[in-house]
Amino acid sequence: MAAPLKSATNAVKKILMTRPTYFTVKYSINPWMDPSVPVNEEKAGKQWETLKSALESAGAAIEVLEPNGAENFPDLVFAANAAVVRGKRAYLANFHYAERKGEKFFFDRWFKENGYETVGDDEIAFEGAGDALWAQKNRSKLFCGVGPRTDARALDDVAKKLKNDEPFTVFGCQLVDPRFYHIDTCFCPLNEEVAIWYPKAFDQVSQHNMKNEIELVAVNEKDAKNFACNAVVVGKNVVMNQGSDETGKTLEKLGYKPIFVDMSEFIKSGGSAKCCTLLLE
Ligand code: ARG
């Protein structure tokens, strides 16, 4: 693995990851999941450790949720879907599919035990940071994916319940390709000004509106299908699944360093590096 670039700032990114103790594919709720294709669980465990080390080397501080009692929730490893966090408040997911609804209990417990207040809504489908990405350090702008997993009503509810004394802006982005069912599978802000994305995952109106908000650099379809946008940005390092060389070159031109890790086992569940992480601080 290439040596990460050291960040000029000393702001440490704090990230939550769930240990993949019970990770497997035993149901199908997205086009990537086929329960007849076996997951190599031992390999998944090693890939998860490698991802965690890569993020730590890049300068992130990782908190680990131990999935005690969660043997019926193989997707709990996708911590991105737990919630969207602002300050010490977590707006919890309300999962779209029955198979994942029970995960809320474990994430809620972790947040409460770790000093966070939890809010949310039991009527409105919302899948956490899988569908909600901050584009700014001060968390003043939130891009939300809407459609497959998250209900448009979540946009106002998240804005209301996370605003505290400092309101922020929420942008709804309509997802239209079933392969890219969460916004973090097709859009990744690198900083306040620029993001990489796969434009065709969004409807025309969203494409237009997003271009007005942030500079967008497209990844090709091959890399998009290889989860190039499902990347974790830590300082100037971008940790992602291996094999997206063209996107790697694009990132280098933008002054970022791609760090490739093998996420093959998680991709069998429709998730990659970013899906296994949740931005806390
Ligand atoms: N199997 C999981 C699901 O379909 C994968 C979740 C991926 N998470 C993400 N943040 N994109 O719900």
Write up this protein.
The chain is of the alpha/beta class and 281 residues long. It has a single domain, classed as L-arginine/glycine Amidinotransferase, Chain A (5-stranded Propeller), CATH 3.75.10. 25% of the residues lie in helices and 22% in strands. It has eight helices and 15 strands. Strands 2-1-15 form a three-stranded mixed beta sheet, with helices on one face. β3 and β4 (89-92) form a beta hairpin. The chain is globular, with a radius of gyration of 17 Å. It binds arginine. Arginine binds at residues 29-30, 33, 75, 78, 80-81, 100, 130, 182, 184-185, 269-271, 275. Residues 29-30, 33, 75, 78, 80-81, 100, 130, 182, 184-185, 269-271, 275 line the site of arginine.
Mean pLDDT value? 96
Strand tally, please?
Answer: 15
Count of discrete alpha- or pi-helical segments spanning 4 or more residues: 8
What characteristic shape results from the CA principal axes?
globular
Structural classification? alpha/beta
Task: Estimate nothing, just give the exact number of structural domains.
Answer: 1
H/E element order: EHEEEHHEEEHEEEHEHEEHEHE
In CATH, the topology is named L-arginine/glycine Amidinotransferase, Chain A
**Segments where pLDDT lies below 50 for 5+ residues?**
none
Radius of gyration: 17 Å
The CATH architecture is 5-stranded Propeller
Largest sheet: 3 strands, mixed
Strand order of the largest sheet: 2-1-15
Protein name: Amidinotransferase
GO molecular function, one term: arginine deiminase activity
Pfam family, one: DDAH_eukar
Organism: Panagrolaimus superbus
